[in-house]
């Protein structure tokens, strides 16, 4: 054991009772302090993907499902016998080693999801409106965008892979923002900061749209200028 540090910890009666019940049921702790240390370690391993935690009900449900899968000969990519042996033996770390695609410590950050949704929403409005503009207005927008028609390019696959993955999942798996379903979402260059500024500029404009009022050419240019 490495260097330790003394911490003051206060638990309410209900939580303390749960700790005592865990000690009595498992017999793995010599004191409440030891129990809390073990439970903290178990919790951290679980949330970081180093191991999984199964309740008695989880174990029973899995065993029943395993029996049904084998009896009905249901095709599955999961080695149900391996998982069953892991559960029987208490080797909860084993599935996280063998099935890393399922058990990992990554979870999308809510702030990243919000950013991607706002960016996709902004570009959805811009591209939809561009399709309805006159040729003269389209040229005006292109002139303000270095001669190119603006188009959502995605996020950088090297430096913004989480954002790219969220965008792809929203469009291809959840069916949102269908306009972008044929895109590969890899811009091959960082775009998050620029697109974030565009989404922030679009937010007050979006509140004024609807009821027959569409995004104007000058507003599109204003949003595009925000990325610079």
CATH T-level topology of the largest domain: yfbu gene product, domain 2
By CATH, the architecture of the largest domain is named: Orthogonal Bundle
Order of helices and strands: HHHHHHHHHH
Gap from first CA to last CA: 53 Å
- Count every helix, treating DSSP H or I runs of 4 or more residues as helices: 10
Give the overall silhouette.
Answer: elongated
What's the helical proportion of residues?
Answer: 55-70%
Number of E-state strands: 0
Overall average residue pLDDT: 88
Q: Any low-confidence stretches, pLDDT <50, length ≥5?
A: none
Largest sheet: none
Radius of gyration: 26 Å
According to CATH, the homologous superfamily of the largest domain is yfbu gene product, domain 2
Q: State the domain count.
A: 2
Top CATH class of the largest domain: Mainly Alpha
Which structural class do you get from the secondary structure elements?
Answer: mainly alpha
- Note the beta-strand portion: under 5%
